[in-house]
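Section 5: illustrative case.
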């Protein structure tokens, strides 16, 4: 992943993947956010998102048909949160006749750090529960060194502990707690959700492959149907 120049466009960005419900409108020609709002929350995205988007659009004084693109985080993250955000983005895109693009939550976390200094690796870790994390490692220039995956915390530490790094994401403190004493202590950014402004910027920079955004789960849902409770087929 690299941060590139933007084409002139107006982008509505949506993020409900983790511990926030957020939306923003970016005008790349003015290189500024027209409006932005982010509400910390672990649950309730479905009820909060559409009123929040309405407020952001009203603050930006723009109609949906005046947008050029809708961008949404596709995960990894909360199963319910991802479905809420992606459904909203796809619905708005369909109604407005505009393209929707999906963005990795991990890339959104890494983007501001790569933009600031792309010479130091960025290790993104998101809490996946059960002593596991969603992990991606970005090397110099934003190149992916370790592709998105789910891993035990100890494996994430082994993947990350290879010299000076920046440790970013909701599980950053968990990984830091298991950090080897003989390795340089990384700088840590443990914010619970990506910055919605960077979701918008990545949305403006993303290639439009004309495919509707789909969730990036990286693992199966925790709730699985029990074989014993299934009715026999006739």
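Designed sequence:
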């Amino acid at each position: 992943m690299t941060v590139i120049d933007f084409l002139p466009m107006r982008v509505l960005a949506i993020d409900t993947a983790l511990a926030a419900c957020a939306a923003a409108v970016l005008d790349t020609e003015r290189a500024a956010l027209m409006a932005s709002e982010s509400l910390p929350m672990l649950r309730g995205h479905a009820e909060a998102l559409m009123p929040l988007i309405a407020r952001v659009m009203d603050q930006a004084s723009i109609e949906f048909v005046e947008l050029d693109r809708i961008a949404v985080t596709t995960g990894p993250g909360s199963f319910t949160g991802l479905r809420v955000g992606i459904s909203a983005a796809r619905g708005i895109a369909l109604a407005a006749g505009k393209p929707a693009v999906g963005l990795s939550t991990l890339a959104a976390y890494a983007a501001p750090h790569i933009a600031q200094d792309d010479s130091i690796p960025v290790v993104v870790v998101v809490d996946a529960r059960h002593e596991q994390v969603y992990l991606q490692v970005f090397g110099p220039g934003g190149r992916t060194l370790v592709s998105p995956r789910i891993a035990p915390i100890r494996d994430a530490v082994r993947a990350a502990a290879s010299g000076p790094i920046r440790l970013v994401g909701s599980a950053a403190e968990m990984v830091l707690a298991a950090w080897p004493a003989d390795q340089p202590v990384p700088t840590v950014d443990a914010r619970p959700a990506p910055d919605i402004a960077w979701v918008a910027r990545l949305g403006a920079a993303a290639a439009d492959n004309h495919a509707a955004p789909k969730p990036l789960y990286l693992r199966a849902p925790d709730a699985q149907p029990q074989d014993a409770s299934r009715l026999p087929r006739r």
